[in-house]
C-alpha cells in the first residue's frame, strides 16, 4: 500500500539523514551522556551503552521508521492505518499516542533546558565566566535556577525558535534549518575536541572513556544505558514515526538507521572528548552529575586562555544540538493537529508550541517555587523525566517491536525493507521478534519495581 504524506516529504535521502541525525544528536549526547558516563564509571558505561544502541536501538529504529513510512501520517494515524492494512485492531494507534503525548511531554522540559543553553551562550560571550571560581560557578547556576522569570524568558526564546522552524514546513523549515545547523555543529564539535584533547588531559580522558572497568557495572547502569540509548536515538516517542512518514520509498531504512546510530554515537563520544580532557586537566570531578556542563565546565572555561571564546563556542554547539532535536519533538504533535483539527501548519505549530510551553512551566517551577512540591517523592520535572524516560519509552518501544514482529505480516515488513539481503532481514526480524521484546520487558518490569 503506497500512500502520500499530506505534511510534505524530505527532498532527498541526505536531507532525511541530516534531519534524523539532528534529532538524535541533542542535549542527550552533549549534556546527559557525558554526565551519565561520568557517574557510571566511564568506559564500563560506554561499553554497555554501545551494546544497547546496536542490539536494541537500531532494530527498534528500523521498526519505527518502517511504520512511519507505511502509514505516512501523524504517529497515531500511521499506526491506525498500518493496523487496518494488516487486519489488526485499531487500538494499535495507542502506540502512536504514546509517541505523540511523550514527545509533547519531553519537549515541555527539553525546551526549559534548551533555554539554559541560550543563557550560557550569552553569559559566556559577555565574559561572565571569566576567572569564575567553583563556588561562584555553583552560585551562578543556582541563582539562575532560582529566578523563575529568567527561566521563563529563556524557555520562551527557545520555544519560539522551535515553533518558527516547524511552522515553515518540512522542506522550508526543518530541512533548511538542519542543512546549515548540522555542518556548523560538526565543525564546532571536531574543532573543540581537537582543542580539548591537545591542550587538556587527552590521555586521561581516553582512558576514562575507553578502558572499561566492569566491576562498576550493575543492573542500574544497564538500565540507565538502555534508557539513554533510546533517548539519544530519539526512539519510541513519535519522532522517528513522523520523520519516517516523510521518507522517499527508495531510501534504505536499515542502512539509514545504522548511519543515524553511528553518527549519534560518534557525537556522544566526541562530546566526551571535548569535556573530559578539560575536566581532568583542571582537576575537576567527572562524576559531578547534571551540573557537569553547567557548573563544572565553566570553572575550566574561566581559567583557560581564550576560555571566553571556547566556552561560548561550546554553548553555541549545545544550543544548536538542542534546536535540531526540539523541532523533531514538536513535529509529531503538529502533524497530528494538522490532520485532526484541520489546522494550517503555522497555526498548528503555535498552538502546539504554546500548550507545550505552558506545561513546561511545571518544570521551570520545579527549580524554584515548587522545589518542595513532590509527587511520589519527585518534583514535577523529575516526574516528567521518569514518566517519559522510564515508562513511556520502554513501553512504546516494546509495543512497537511486538506490533511489527508479531502483528504485521512478515511479507509487509520484507517489502518495506527491500534493500537488504534475506540474511540481513532475518537477523533484524529475529531481533525485533525476540531479542528486543525480551530486553524491553526486563527493563520495564525492573522499572516498575517487579525486580
Ligand atoms: N535525541 C534527542 C537528544 O539526544 C532528544 C529527542 C528528540 C528525543 N526527539 C526525541 C528523545 C524523541 C526521545 C524521543 O537530545
Q: How would you describe what is shown here?
A:
With 451 residues, this protein is mainly α. It has helices spanning 13-24, 27-39, 43-71, 75-85, 93-125, 134-146, 148-167, 170-199, 202-210, 219-232, 239-245, 253-281, 291-303, 307-341, 345-366, 380-407, 410-416, 422-447. The mean pLDDT is 94. Bound molecules: tryptophan. Residues 23-24, 26-29, 103, 106, 231-232, 234, 237, 239, 325, 328-329 line the site of tryptophan (TRP).
Summarize the entry for a quick read.
By secondary structure, this protein is an all-alpha fold. It has helices at 13-24, 27-39, 43-71, 75-85, 93-125, 134-146, 148-167, 170-199, 202-210, 219-232, 239-245, 253-281, 291-303, 307-341, 345-366, 380-407, 410-416, 422-447.
Distinctive features:
single chain; 451 residues; mainly alpha; 18 helices; globular; binds tryptophan
SSE series: HHHHHHHHHHHHHHHHHH
Largest sheet: none
- Distinct small-molecule ligands in the complex: tryptophan
The beta-strand count equals 0
Topology:
Layout: H1 13-24, H2 27-39, H3 43-71, H4 75-85, H5 93-125, H6 134-146, H7 148-167, H8 170-199, H9 202-210, H10 219-232, H11 239-245, H12 253-281, H13 291-303, H14 307-341, H15 345-366, H16 380-407, H17 410-416, H18 422-447
Helix pairs in contact: 1-8, 1-12, 1-14, 2-10, 2-12, 3-4, 3-9, 3-10, 3-11, 3-12, 3-16, 3-18, 4-5, 5-7, 5-14, 5-15, 5-16, 6-13, 7-8, 7-14, 7-15, 8-12, 8-14, 9-12, 10-16, 11-14, 13-14, 14-15, 15-16, 16-18
The structure holds tryptophan.
Amino acid at each position: 500500500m503506497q500512500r502520500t504524506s499530506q505534511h510534505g516529504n524530505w527532498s532527498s535521502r541526505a536531507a532525511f539523514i541530516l534531519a534524523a541525525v539532528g534529532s538524535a544528536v541533542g542535549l542527550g549526547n552533549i549534556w546527559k551522556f557525558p554526565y551519565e558516563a561520568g557517574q557510571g564509571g566511564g568506559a564500563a558505561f560506554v561499553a554497555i551503552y554501545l551494546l544497547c544502541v546496536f542490539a536494541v536501538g537500531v532494530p527498534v529504529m528500523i521498526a519505527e521508521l518502517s511504520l512511519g513510512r507505511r502509514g505516512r501520517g501523524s504517529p497515531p494515524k500511521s499506526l491506525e492505518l498500518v493496523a487496518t492494512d494488516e487486519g489488526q485492531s485499531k487500538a494499535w494507534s495507542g502506540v502512536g499516542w504514546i509517541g505523540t503525548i511523550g514527545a509533547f511531554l519531553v519537549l515541555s522540559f527539553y525546551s526549559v533546558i534548551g533555554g539554559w543553553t541560550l543563557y550560557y551562550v550569552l553569559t559566556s560571550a559577555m565574559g561572565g565566566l571569566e576567572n569564575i571560581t567553583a563556588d561562584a560557578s555553583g552560585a551562578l547556576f543556582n541563582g539562575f535556577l532560582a529566578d523563575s522569570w529568567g527561566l521563563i524568558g529563556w524557555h520562551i526564546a527557545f520555544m519560539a525558535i522551535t515553533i518558527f522552524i516547524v511552522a515553515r514546513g518540512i522542506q522550508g523549515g526543518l530541512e533548511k534549518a538542519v542543512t546549515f545547523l548540522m555542518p556548523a555543529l560538526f565543525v564546532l564539535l571536531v574543532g573543540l575536541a581537537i582543542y580539548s584533547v591537545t591542550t587538556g588531559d587527552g590521555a586521561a580522558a581516553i582512558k576514562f572513556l575507553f578502558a572499561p572497568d566492569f566491576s562498576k557495572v550493575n543492573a542500574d547502569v544497564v538500565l540507565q544505558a538502555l534508557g539513554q540509548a533510546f533517548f539519544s536515538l530519539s526512539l519510541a516517542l513519535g519522532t522517528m514515526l513522523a520523520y519516517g512518514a516523510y521518507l522517499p520509498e527508495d531510501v534504505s531504512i536499515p542502512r539509514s538507521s545504522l548511519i543515524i546510530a553511528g553518527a549519534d554515537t560518534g557525537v556522544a563520544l566526541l562530546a566526551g572528548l571535548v569535556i573530559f580532557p578539560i575536566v581532568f586537566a583542571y582537576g575537576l570531578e567527572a562524576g559531578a552529575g547534571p551540573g557537569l556542563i553547567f557548573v563544572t565546565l565553566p570553572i575550566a572555561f574561566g581559567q583557560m586562555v581564550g576560555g571566553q571564546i571556547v566556552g561560548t563556542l561550546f554553548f553555541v554547539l549545545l544550543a544548536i544540538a538542542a534546536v535540531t532535536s526540539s523541532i523533531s519533538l514538536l513535529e509529531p504533535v503538529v502533524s497530528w493537529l494538522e490532520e485532526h483539527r484541520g489546522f494550517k501548519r503555522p497555526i498548528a505549530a503555535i498552538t502546539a508550541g504554546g500548550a507545550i510551553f505552558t506545561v513546561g512551566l511545571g518544570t521551570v517551577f520545579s527549580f524554584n517555587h515548587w522545589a518542595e512540591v513532590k509527587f511520589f517523592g519527585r518534583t514535577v520535572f523529575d516526574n516528567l523525566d521518569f514518566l517519559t524516560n522510564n515508562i513511556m519509552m520502554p513501553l512504546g518501544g516494546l509495543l512497537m517491536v511486538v506490533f511489527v514482529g508479531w502483528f504485521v505480516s512478515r511479507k509487509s515488513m520484507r517489502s518495506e525493507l527491500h534493500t537488504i539481503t534475506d540474511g540481513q532481514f532475518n537477523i533484524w526480524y529475529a531481533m525485533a521478534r525476540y531479542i528486543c521484546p525480551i530486553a524491553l520487558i526486563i527493563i520495564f518490569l525492573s522499572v516498575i519495581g517487579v525486580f
